[in-house]
Amino acid sequence: MEVVTAHGPAEVALDETAGPAFLLVLTHGSNGSVDAPDLLAVRETALGLGGAVARVTQPFRYAGRRAPGSPAKQDEAWLEIVGLVRGRFADVPLVQGGRSNGARVACRTAAAAGAAGVLALAFPLHPPGRPEKTRVGELRAAGVEVLVVNGDRDPFGVPDEADAAHVVVLAGERHDLNKDPAAVGRAAEPWLRTWAAR
Questions:
Q1: How many angstroms separate the CA atoms of 60 and 133, rounded?
Q2: Residues 20 and 92: beta-carbon distance below 8 Å
Q3: How far is CA 172 from CA 142, 161, 198, in A?
Q4: What percent of the chain has pLDDT over 70?
């Protein structure tokens, strides 16, 4: 479905289940799509646990742009979208997440969205080769429980165990996490199961 935000239209692909245990809202990276292999693997895991899943194509990507633009505008649009989607699932826990830039958005907006947790796939700790430009503050400031899943060969860096509630590092994976997407789903499964049980 198309959702109109103050910063342009977005698109939401929604997988609903009867009486969902939780709502998982996922989004893409700067130059990616909601059909990225790791996002689809997590979607399958969440559906298998009885969750509802919404995959959000943010306004900048829906308009065909590769650069997300202003973080403030990106976050505002995200909160509008999540608010509309969440209205369909009143009393279940909201878990939001994404890959790369989408993980940053999910961390920055977690408190304002009322999220119970954040799933951060391939969190871009710093630009490649620029560790001094760290974004660890976004991760630490999420204000909710965060699960990070990164590859050990990610040129954007790998968050430390002190930076999030849970950090899973997958051997041999780079930033795209597409060598073994099923492993990403398996890494998220125990954590997502805790929301299904609440």
A1: 24
A2: yes
A3: 28, 19, 34
A4: 99
